[in-house]
Each structure stands twice: as structure tokens, then as C-alpha cells.
Amino acid sequence: MAASAFSNSIKRSDIIHRLPPLPTIRDLIRLYKLRALKQLSQNFLMDERLTDKIVKAAGNIENKYVIEVGPGPGSITRSILRRRPNHLVVVEKDRRFIPTLQLLKESTFNVIELDIIRDDILKYNCENAFPTCKPKDWLDSPSTHIIGNLPFAISTRLLINWLKDMSLKRGAWIYGRTSLTLTFQLEVAQRIVAEIGSDQRCRLSLMSQFWAKPELKFIIPGSAFVPKPEVDVGVVTLNPLKLPSTDLPFDLVEKVMRYIFSMRQKYVRRGIQNLFPPKIRDDLTKRIFYEADIDSQSRSFQLSNEECLRLAQVYYNIIQEHPVIDSYNYRGPKEEREVWDDWDLNSMQ
Fold this sequence. Notes:
Blueprint: H1 2-13, H2 15-18, H3 25-32, E1 44-45, H4 48-57, E2 65-69, H5 75-82, E3 87-92, H6 98-107, E4 113-118, E5 144-149, H7 152-168, E6 179-185, H8 186-193, H9 203-211, E7 212-220, E8 225-226, E9 233-240, H10 250-260, H11 268-272, H12 278-292, H13 305-321, H14 334-338
Parallel strand pairs: 2-3, 2-5, 3-4, 5-6
Antiparallel strand pairs: 1-8, 6-9, 7-9
């Protein structure tokens, strides 16, 4: 048994030396006719020192389960494999990269399980990634990780989707507190981690911080990518909180945060009042700030996480009393908004 374990250990460590050398950009273009597609927001990171640094930011992934999003030609994939996970699943939408990823799969055969999934990460169900992975208790250290150099065009949408999955403990979070290590356009990364009073503070800041602990680990200059984007990139880790900041429904919280920050340079009441139909707007706006014990003349970026959640809680209480209010949309079609013009609380009884 000991000899077998030693042999297996040697084989896994030998992966570092067995990986095929990373082709130059010129080789990739010539051999596989690859080029970054603008419509897919593709930017390749080829510097091994930086890809190693991204994977290192994820923490210890040895013998763990890892999903990589958008591996492209496989530069980050190689850095992940060098840290010897138990099982790596790469999800790639672009069929042009499958041959380069297949090369990595063949080089790690019988040593690390590497699955190549050709799919859109926005549609892929991460629950299916690791059929042999035993779910861990939410309070335990996670054995699952998601790592990815995200396309700018889908990064915010994808993060919101994942935060919702995190709140419901579904998708990748059926396995436990799956951690995230992701790249974002630097401005987006700064928004995710923005604290109270920051000019960058927004809906994304709050939603990220209600369910996870985000950290901006380091910044990668745009010049390190091919093709070079016009902006720098931030590497962010998001580790799910053992105890989330709220148990309110995710969609309701996101809705209230969206209204709170819809007019960030004006008093926060200007955004909140639009949650309610015209005839009852003033009364319910006064109520929500009174019961939440918040100054209605504050500005959104001045509110703490707790204060924002108090506003969401009172809104939740109101729609529990008057469920129809939840369907009101002040930006909806004119004919729909006109239906609400004469509605008051008595008509909603």
C-alpha cells in the first residue's frame, strides 16, 4: 500500500515535467488558426508567471475539484494542472480550442482526471461537474473551486448568476462553499470589493458582500494579454460566507439594491420611491425609511451593508402585506404603468 501511494505521488508530481511546452502565440495561430474573437470578449493570458499567480490566489487545490471557465488555449489550465487537483473540468464555448485542450488531457491521462466540456458557461449546470465528489458541510473548508479568466462581456452577469446559486446552495454550491478566483475588468473588480463611501460602490458591491467575502488579490496590466485590452484586469477571490448576511430572497434583495443605486448622486429616497406606484409612493417611501431607521437624504454609497438590508427587509414586509406591489415596474410600458395610476392601499386589500 505504501509503495503504491509513493508511486502515485511520484507520478502526480511528474506532471510538472510532462506537460507539453506552451506554444508561442505565433505557433498557436499557425497550427490551430486561432485568433481572439471580439464578439466573445476573448483576451489570452500567456505569461506563465501570471497564470501561476492566479492559480496560487485560489489557495491549495491539490487533490481538490476544480472548474475552469473559458480556458482558451489552456495557459491557466496548465498552471492548475501543475498544482495537481484531483479532477479538473474545463468549460469552453469555442470549438477552436478543443485540440489544444485535448493535448493537455492526453498528457495527464491516468494521473489527473481532466474533462473538456464544450458549452456556454452561462448555460452549463455545474451540479453535473463532479459526480464522484461528496458534498461537504457548508461550514467545512471547501474542496471545490472555480477559476477563470472571464470574458468582460459576461463577467457581471455570470457573477450575479453564481451569487444566486450560492444563496440557494445549488449549482457548484451543492458541493459546499465552492470558492471563486476570477478575472474582471479592473473597474468591475474594484466595484465588487468597494466599501462604504467609495465612489465605486454599487449594486454589485452589495450583492457580492452579502453572500461572500471578496478580495482584490492583484492587478494584471492590460499589456500582459493578447490581444491587449484597453483596461487593466483585477484578480478577485470570492469565498462564500459561512453565515450569509441575509436570508431574504436573492431576487428581492437584488431588486432593492438596483433601486437604491439607480440614482447614486441623488438622495437615496429618489431611487427607493420608484419601487411603489404613484398614488401610494409618498406614504410607502416614508414608511420604508422610518421602519428601517435610515435618513432618506443619505446617498446610496454612504449606506452600510446592514442599512441596505434593512431597506430590503421593510420592502419585503410591505409586499408580504400587499403582494401585488411586487409586480409594479416604473420603467414598464406606458399602458402597464397607467393601470397603477389610481391604485391605493385600500384597492389592494
